[in-house]
Specification:
mainly alpha
Length: 108
Amino acid sequence: MASLHGNRWYSMSLPEQLANIGSEVGRSAKWQGKDEEKFKGAIERALELFDLTLEDQRWKGRLFEIGRVKELFFDGISGRNEYKTDLKDLENYFYPFMGLVARQYTFK
């Protein structure tokens, strides 16, 4: 995922970034309890994307929300169950961003 470290990630809108994170959250949900290697890969990618988004200076007013979603994701993957996070439920948070981005690229 080294290509996202450059300007490409930071040129994406917040909905685009969150849609990408949502894709990895969905992959994590899909592979949880089924394929440990794929599950871990999706987790690593999601956490990297969360970190890149949190580092993006344009969203400094949204850090609490983004950080909170990352915390819920960690709760869902770690088994802590402090918040009883289910990854499938968390994936629902990202659907509006995925839909918005899909519509933007479909009707260009």
